Amino acid sequence: MRTISLRSAQIASAAEAMTPAAVKAEKGVSAWNTAGTWEEKNLDKWGNASMKKMLSERTFAIPGEAVETNPTIKVVKIKDYEGSASVVKVRGKTRYNYEFSFTLEWEVLLPSGPCKGELKFPDVAPDCEGAYESTYSVDRSTPGDAKGVLER
């Protein structure tokens, strides 16, 4: 009987130790996930707003050797945008997951006239390691002699 009583006390102590109040409060770990095997926080709203803001403010200078006036290509519109972002904590390691796809409409004023086009990014994700696939196109209204400068 004494052994049963001891086991009951041990079980009761273990049960008390597993209550949310008794679990050590570790940043990014839920009370139900005491082993810290998987935690994920959805950051779609923040990630999408931040990415759109960053993209809409983007400009690119055309190198001086291409054009003497150093014109700037400006993003004027973001379209076909899709994206998701999250922070995942797996066994104590934090990982940042995101996946975006979008098309940037751009324009620039060159000495030969106004130019515009699109730059499509079908897959922007951490596994791309900074080398993102893209498709570049120039609008038909762009002057023919400007296309060579823009392609450089």
Report on the structure:
A hairpin with a 2-residue loop joins strand 3 and strand 4. Strands 1, 2, 3, 4, 5 and 6 form a six-stranded antiparallel β-sheet that branches. Helix content is 24%, strand content 39%. The model is unreliable at 1-26 (pLDDT under 50). It has helices at 2-17, 44-56, 144-151; strands at residues 39-42, 59-61, 72-90, 93-110, 113-124, 135-138. It has three helices and six strands. The radius of gyration is 27 Å and the shape is elongated. With 152 residues, it is of the alpha+beta class. It has two domains: 1-31; 39-151, Activator of Hsp90 ATPase Aha1, N-terminal domain (Bactericidal permeability-increasing protein, domain 1, Super Roll), CATH 3.15.10.
Task: Name its key features.
single chain; alpha+beta; 2 domains; six-stranded antiparallel sheet; 24% helix
